[in-house]
Protein: UDP-N-acetylmuramoyl-L-alanyl-D-glutamate--2, 6-diaminopimelate ligase
Organism: Muribaculum caecicola
Amino acid sequence: MKSLRQLIQAIRPIEIIGSEKKNITNVVNDSRQVSQGSLFVAVRGCTVDGHTFIPLLQYSGVAAIVCEEFPEIVESSITYIKVENSAIALGVLASEWYDNPSTKLKLVGVTGTNGKTTTATLIYEMARLLGYKAGLLSTVCNYIETEAVPTNQTTPDPLTINQLLARMVESGCQYAAMEVSSHAAHQHRIAGLIFAGGIFSNLTRDHMDYHKTVQAYLQAKKSFFDGLGREAFALTNIDDKNGMIMLQNTSAARYTYSLRTMADFRCRIIETRLDGTTLSLNGSEVEVLFTGRFNAYNLTAVYGASILLGWEKEQVLTAMSRLVPVAGRFQAFHSPKGCTAIVDYAHTPDAVINVLEAIREITGSQGNIITVVGAGGDRDRGKRPIMAREAAARSERLILTSDNPRTENPESIISEMEAGLDEAAKNRTLSISDRRQAIRTAAALAQKGDVILIAGKGHENYQEINGIKHHFDDREEIMEAFKA
């Protein structure tokens, strides 16, 4: 329980109607969770405006309501607090409610189109390998030390974030890493958090269904760096054309990493294999269990962040050789007949290109690449033909299939992907809407030395069809296909 006066001091209200001398029992942004003594924050969401529920709360026992505009009729027993932006207020209130947990550990945020999950997860793993207690907020799973907490969002809502961070502090965690999605930055889900550092991986086309333009998508990512404090570090991929844009208005200390040019943290690929890579990081050689140029970027970011967090260089390099790939990210499976399957979360054109080029770099002219790929329904339709075209250009055989069609018809999605193919590519392409059958077909076509890429779902263990999630795991399916 906290006093209303203490809580609202943090959000600088424009106007208050009613008494501030109240005790608050909980802070909520879902009207269904309101109970006696609640502080309700009315947030304007993408599909629902919390302000529409204010008139329904007068007999709910709610103690106070934070909003951007007062209702026409105010109830004398309720305190109304007007703010400029209630989404930002929610983040600040959530942090205040949980005693500002982000100030009690070192929190590193990772943003970018691709590589967020891997980079954030490896920073968490690095901390633990070095003997520190740490937490993780990621697409795959949240972790409080070793306790797994399931997730269904890349970046949760502010109340969930702060609750998890508070639990990390309670468990003795000294560090935490989290993915910062463009949606979360734009919707102010990270408001009120104090970051020790921020990392930018790259920016390519994604989420145009939400942001509408690449510039808006870029600005959402940049806003994370704009909000970093002077005590934080901002580490950016200088090889990405948008890398330096992230640093333009940040107050944080600025650092760069690169595989191509001079930077604070420089990586060179010495040798690459399907089961690992030899890297040179700022002149020090290290063997890692990761493959592909895109993973070299991720590992360079991890190395840079580790050094900026004050960890000892030699210990960091030793720990890097013990890091293992994240589930569903370039995860390899081998068949008895001598072919290999790679399961990867690649679901953007750039990610598909990166994975396929990594495979080709390793295999050279030996063996064929068979790619199984789809595109999610109810999401950016513009990337569908691009993904198919780029996959076809880098594969001997292409199988277009279903990938979380949601409320769309899988055949219609595949048809939009096919629009990106010329006649020569179409002659090398199969369209199989049943994903299980598509994976089994790829396994049947593959010969010794061939590599199958199953792209799009990675760690996900479901197919979302018409609002229902059905169990489906690409990793399970390819292992069954290889057995058959």
Observations:
- The first strand starts at residue 2 and ends at 3.
- DSSP finds 15 helices and 26 strands in the chain.
